[in-house]
Design a protein that fits this description.
The structure holds two protein chains of two kinds. Chain A is mainly α. Chain A contains twelve helices and no strands. In chain B, 80% of the residues lie in helices and 0% in strands. The chains are: A mainly alpha, B mainly alpha. At the A-B interface, α1, α2, α3, α4 and α5 of A face α1, α2, α3, α4 and α5 of B.
Chain lengths: 245, 90
Amino acid sequence: MNTNQTDASTFDLFKRGFRNGIPIGLGYLAVSFSLGIAASNVGINGTQSFFASILCLASAGEYAGFTLIGAGASYLEMAVMTFVVNARYMLMSCSMSQRMSPDTSVIHRTCMAYSITDELFALAIARPGYLRPEYSYGATLASAPLWAIGTTLGCIAGNIMPANLASAFSVALFGMFIAVIVPPARTNRVIAYLIAICFALSAAAHYLPSLSSISSGTKTIVLTVAISAIAAIVHPQAQREDNAE
Amino acid sequence: MALVTYAVRLLPLVLIRRQIKNRFIQSFLYYVPYVTLAVMTFPAIIEATQNPISGLSALIVGIAAAWSGAGLFDVSVICCLTVFLLERFI
């Protein structure tokens, strides 16, 4: 059973995961604060924002969801939007499925799926060999609660916060998005061009008067699917090497 | 919201036991995260702040910081500081 390269005990793995999860948790605490402000702007209260964050654990997904709630969108629109914005987790989940030991039970897989976020995914796959559930659980426990607490604090304090501080915090989430998309653009010029095209088209969709009747959520869905599909046709990725080594 | 979010994460992990071969789906899934995040960042970032100039500056400074290797948390803080400092002087 214990065929992995490491013979660390279950508890050791958990502890190591927890320790490595702490910096992620602190980052979450700060970033989710601005998510909470976004939530309170559309009339979501502190308790609701706590549950939204602990249940979803998704920055862009929750942000998009809150925006749609503010716009009075339908459940269907919410579901489609949530799917599209979180589609990257599907990619990560696909990629994690290639790194799982065949012994890993469905229960472990079910639990590990909860914490597939940009950061926790990166942390999990940074370890060589098969993914270990205990390590993921430790990292999740150190970070996910802080995500929910930060959201709640932002939601409550966002209202009583001076306007200049609220304004400053409101870009934290965008800062996180930037930190996810820019580093790959350094090494992959296709992504760099793609980001520039996205900015341009997104601005066009936002400012063109003829498109102003379409909700911003729908615009994001349409732009994402269209631009990604065209990019996949024009610049297909080289076959991914087997990352299980 | 939570159900869809979780399903998206769960299903591939439980169902896929071998490598995805379709090149278009692979490429599409590869590009989606960057495209979504880019579309959601701009122009929303310049409307989030009190002053569009500070939002735009945060975008530029954030990109520069991420480009030169700053981590997730650092880029966030740098963006916030940019807005905070600029709005004191504008």
